[in-house]
User: Fold this.
Amino acid sequence: MNTGQWLGLVTGVLFGFLLQKGRVLRFDKQIGAMLLKDMTIFKFMLSAILVGMVGILMLSNLEIITLSHKPMNVGAVLLGGALFGAGWAVMGFCPGTSLGALGEGRWHAVFAIIGMVVGAAFYAELYPFLKSTVLAWKDFGKIGLPEALGLSQWVIVPIFWVGIITLFFWFEKKKL
Amino acid sequence: MKGKTDDGGWSPYLAGALLGLLAIASVLATTQLLGKTSYLGASTTFVRAAGILERTIAADHVVSNEYYAETKVRVDWQFMLVIGIVLGAFISSTMDKSFRMEGVPPTWEERFGPSIGKRAVGAFVGGIIAMIGARLADGCPSGHGLSGMMQLSASSLVAFIMFFGVGVLVSHIVYGRRTS
Assistant:
């Protein structure tokens, strides 16, 4: 294995370890969040985002790392996001957590993983068609919220922090 | 707010914050060691896995497919990251004895019964739809939800809202009969 593969493996082991310790891999946690009854995965994801965004934006400002925005292609993000949400609700796993769920013995994740590999193969076949239709509608390119909103990132970050921490207090108060 | 869950897990706030640190360490490590900043993600690996499997039966087709060509079918950093997730979850669940063999999850069983076949079909069909969506949106809850949000990507905020918004809607339709 090369350096990249080793680094990926080590990072993945730590990623999987934290996903499992946070108890976010389970079908019931994922569906519980969508049924708005158990906010565990929101607490986990939003905590990661709050911490990660500060470090990543600082490293990017210092030009140590480069940001890599995914394109704000309107049709693709809206339709793709909706399809993902619908499939996720039935499958009860997302791509990353399906593998983790398998690791903690929830072997029905195998069917989800096979489905997703088949879905990826379908997408590869659909791609030329999608490229001339959905993907061609309107693409705002690889933009960040600061450019899109005309606000400094150091205005947006505190807004996220205050908003999300408020949400956390509300989750705890409601015992979600 | 408790430090541990009832079954020995960690507070999701703590585990999540640590994942935030891992995400920062990971962008630094990939930049320094591999020369290119890479962000945590998972769904592209499913395309590569599909390409690798398809190559064994129809090599020419994979070579000529535009999407496989753009994605580059190979076992890269992210591919090994996804494999690592299986190992990490296995190590963690074995350590705290939360490893369970489960064929049908409780919430599913309450709604659809104990049939493994039904669960398999649901997971399989859901998987196909979700992955087509993830590739179209160019990311999943890892790539958009975590990495994109951390970078304040406009597309990721929209994708995140769509994932959960439609997930809430569809989950209430699918599992709602029990809850209402």
Observations:
- Chain B is about 75% helix and 0% strand.
